[in-house]
Design brief:
about 0% strand; transport; three-stranded antiparallel sheet; Growth Hormone, Chain: A; 2 domains; mainly alpha
Amino acid sequence: MTDTASAADAPGKRGSSARWLALAVIALAQLMVVLDATIVTIALPFAQRDLEISQGNTQWVMTAYTLIFGGLLLLGGRMADYLGRRNIFIAGLIGFAAASALAGLAQNGAQLFVGRGLQGAFAALLAPAALSLVSVTFTEAKERATAFSIFAGISAAGAAIGLLAGGALTEYASWRWTLLVNAPIAIIALIGALTFVLKDVPAPRTGGYDVPGAVSVTFGLVAIVYGFSRAAEDGWTAGSTLGLLAVGVVLLAVFVGVERRSTNPLLPLRIPGEINRGGALIVALLVPIAMFAMFLFLSFYFQNTLGYTPLKAGVAFLPFPIGIAISAGITSTLLPKLGPRPLMLAGAVLGTIGLLWLAQLGFGDGYAFSVLPAQSLIALGMGPLFVGMQAVALHQVDEQDSGVASALLNAAQQVGGAVGTALLTTISVQVAKDYVIDNPTVSDLAARASIHSYDVAFYVGAGFFLAAIPVIALMIRDKPENLIEGAEDDVKVPMAV
């Protein structure tokens, strides 16, 4: 039967425990989506050898996922609004499990690339549906802050957990299990979704799906993400890089024009236009660039410089999710009292200090004194940044727009991650080459050049954390009472029970 109560009322009919069980299911799905961006990183050399993938094509194992994921996010978010968030969540789980099995059982490179692309497509359904389900399920201020802290902690820590899981699975099972492991996880989440996640009534739709908007933004985001991916290999001034970025910018400009005139827009411009949400989206672009500086180059440092095994390299990242869990929990307690701005500012400052600390790495330094303290500072900073960012990006969003608002936040993070990977890889490669040319007689030249290039990348990453500080200070203006009002008046979603 159907109940037209608000999201706050409907879950309550099944008790508070039902909401937290639903959150556990949603969080499990989110973890699967996030860690899948990194879980295959350590397994890449093994997959490349087994499937005889050329060096030039290896990047497609990563790029196929991020390209399709980033490009389809807004469309996936709008589908969640119009077809039901739970329905799209379940469809995403089924599709992700099948795509993971296809990729894990691939017999050649092409099958692996197709499987990874399909994973990205179904992740574009899962991610916005998951975040909007959290938003509509938890409307009481303290519960909402706690739910967002759990979800944000998983979002921020998922990449590190992916490296840990990828290292363990590669070392003790097979590279294939870095992909196949998603199938049983998705099935467990599917059973949980059918049992604990409440049905929602889709938002009323007065027009079509805004096909021109969907096409322009999808291909625009794909061009932007792929352009940054090409920059890492071809260089920033290459015709392929500049052409893709130009096409992407033009298509996104076309998308804005289409949305201004559409009676049923894919992305109502009032969503990014509100100053707090706009600030949260800018932070969502900047923070992944800085975070990827740590993940990408510490992974190289652990394995190439310190000689860690894949599993040991994964374990070396373990303080990161632990630190995020601690800081996200603290943030959930303080957010309703202090509001997001001071907490996010503190997070950005901690992240800046942590990356500046990492940038002091030198030849012969070890993990305990040079990496662990810096990694811990960054982790403690990521908790308040992600919790605050997600809370601000989704508060006081009309119920019919919660899916696309969630998708916009995810898209900003995906583009930021692509920018970070391409920008920092390009810089580090050039810096290492210059170091070798300038210091031809130095002992252990290759190792010293690598560490120097990592240090420069850490400095650049710290700059992006630093750039987030004025954005937070000037644009994140929500006070605690605003978030409480947002929690109570935010998303009124008819639920079916």
